[in-house]
Amino acid sequence: MYAIVKVLKMMLLFIFVGFLLPSFGLSVENNLTIDEDLEIERQLKLLNKPAIKTIVLRPNSYPDGLFDDDILSSTNVTSIEIGLKDGNTCPSGTVPIRRVSKDDLIRMRTSFKNMKMNPPVKNDETHVQPQWAVHIGRSEELGGLYGVSAFINLYGLPQVMQTQFSTSAAWLVNNLKEDQINIISVGWTVSPVTYGDNKTRLTAGWTIDNFQKTGCQDTSCPGFVQVSKKLPLGIAVTPLSTYGGKQYGLNILVFKDPYSKNWWFRLGKDGELIGYWPNELFTALPFNQIHFGGVVGYSENSKKPPMGSGHFPIEGTNKSCFISTMRYVNVENNFQELELGVLSPHSSLQKCYYVGPYFHQGDEFGNMFFFGGPENCP
């Protein structure tokens, strides 16, 4: 599944993904025109070609305050450590990259625009219903936004069907005009239409126009530069939380290196550097919003998928999905806690999916909130 390749520089940072354009929907029917099929073949050769050369392997600087304390010392919640099977890592000078097939690109073609951030309503072009339940913080309350971190509770959602997806994540957003919305997202997803199965997977994405023509998930197109030798984007994650039982999650951090200007993704309490998005990739910075929570998508007139744990926030600890210890990096490169009162809840279909209040849960969890909803909501 994973091909070992040399660490490479993504030479073509602004390849606009033409095969994603005309017809979208949550299905995998191969209704491609000749031109679309040729474009997918061209993109496949580009993504799976031999590596070029080794480039930046570590950031020059970390946010001040990042290492001041241990996040989530609770014995009831565990930050999982994931990687290649049996603890394997790639040889020196190489990294794991998920091999991209033609079927993968066709699935991505059908799912790409369903990741839109704004507005969270019916997409008339694709007949896809995206629904959101998030807390949002804005730069006018926080100042500059140069990074984000959080602990994101992990769940398995085996009931997610081919016509659905469910994601829990954190987003850095520059919410300008529709064709100028820059986004970085990190978290976990269950997306059969993207990956061909309903496993819970580590995921990250980017766009510079609200997923209209640019960007992608993971390393499915040039943009994100993988540096970790053991953790490829798109990898299935285990163990997973159980309803009423042991809880697991991901410690995620995205931050801007003030020297190289690159945007780094760091995972886990041990601080594994997964890779980075080159600053030149983006067109409208700095980011002016941070979002935390969940998004789901489903075909028009089909059943609705679960979000989070598949249970409403009111069920609380060990039953509802949560995000905690949310922080941000300010313009002075200082790591700051998101205090109570600076996040506001937004739900697009509150009877089915919503976020609970942002509150303090003591030293074990810090500030947190629950979110989500069940499948098949009427």
UniProtKB/TrEMBL annotation:
Annotated ranges, domain Neprosin PEP catalytic: 125-378
Residues spanning the signal sequence: 1-27
UniProt keyword annotations, A-Z: Signal
Membrane spanning stretches: none
PANTHER family tied to this protein: PROTEIN, PUTATIVE (DUF239)-RELATED, PROTEIN, PUTATIVE (DUF239)-RELATED-RELATED
The protein's name: Neprosin PEP catalytic domain-containing protein
Organism: Dioscorea zingiberensis
